[in-house]
Design brief:
This protein has nine helices and eight strands. With about 260 residues, the chain is an alpha+beta fold. Bound molecules: zinc ion (ZN).
Length: about 260
């Protein structure tokens, strides 16, 4: 694993160097450098170098395969290089039976059924530990994400600034119906980085994987994921995959890189 890790770091350095040149030599409209574009995997779309379904080769107990290209898979990979179609709507969305912050609209209470059931179990277990969690934002349609992004473009003046705080439509994991942003009373039901300082987050980060969820954008992995630390953003990937990612301290992008 150590050798693989060193290989990974070396690869990252090469890729980062390569990206710098590419950015300097050509400008693609709408892809200006910003915090979410600093993804070292940019330029080598995983889809271009991996088979659709592959056998995992980590030095850890791994069973089966991960079909990250299937938009209906619990393991679907969504990021700047792997976008969802505009017309993609999960067919099994259900209202999640958890407490929500009072300002949450009906669409964002939806999750795909398997994710909803596991999130309900996760929230129930948290409550047994004296921790009350609240949902804020689950499913988001392509059109909703487009409206959010366009609103931020108007608010901040251009797409680069807007993209620092919101994903472009098709690039948001929320469209999968496998994500719920969560919060607590102790942070006034908001989505803020200092949610990481709460007892709720402290419990979540070590227990979410038992229910198939991961902290998708962890602290210190911003250059890998392309997103700032979001302690509130829980992504359902299924219990087997969540356990591997948690136990190996890997983001989903790192995991796929190792698995090649
Ligand atoms: Zn989120």
């Amino acid at each position: 694993m150590q050798i693989k890790f060193l290989t990974f770091i070396l690869a990252l350095l090469l890729i980062v160097g390569g990206c710098s040149n590419a950015v300097g030599s050509q400008t693609v409209p709408g892809s200006e450098t910003n915090s979410q574009d600093n993804n070292p995997l940019q330029g080598i779309p995983i889809s271009a170098v991996e088979p659709d379904i592959f056998t995992l080769q980590l030095g850890v107990a791994v069973q089966g395969t991960v079909d990250y290209h299937d938009i209906n898979s619990m393991a679907v990979l969504v990021n700047k290089q792997n976008k969802l179609p505009a017309d993609y709507v999960p067919t099994d969305l259900v209202e999640t039976n958890i407490p929500f912050a009072s300002y949450v609209g009906s669409e964002q209470k939806l999750l795909r059924q398997e994710a909803a059931e596991n999130l309900e179990a996760l929230f129930a277990e948290a409550e047994k530990n004296g921790l009350i969690l609240y949902g804020v934002s689950g499913y988001r349609s392509y059109q909703t994400q487009k409206a959010i992004f366009n609103n931020n473009v108007r608010k901040y003046g251009d797409e680069t600034k807007a993209n620092k705080i919101s994903a472009r439509p098709g690039e948001s994991e929320h469209q999968t119906g496998l994500v719920m942003d969560v919060t607590s009373q102790s942070v006034a039901y908001s989505l803020v980085t200092y949610f990481a300082d709460t007892a709720e987050y402290s419990w979540l980060k070590d227990n979410a994987h038992h229910y198939g969820f991961i902290i998708r954008y962890p602290q210190g992995k911003e250059i890998i994921t392309g997103y700032i630390f979001e302690p509130w953003h829980l992504r359902y990937v299924g219990k087997d995959l969540a356990k591997i990612l948690y136990e190996n301290n890997l983001t989903y992008e790192e995991y796929l890189f190792f698995a090649i």
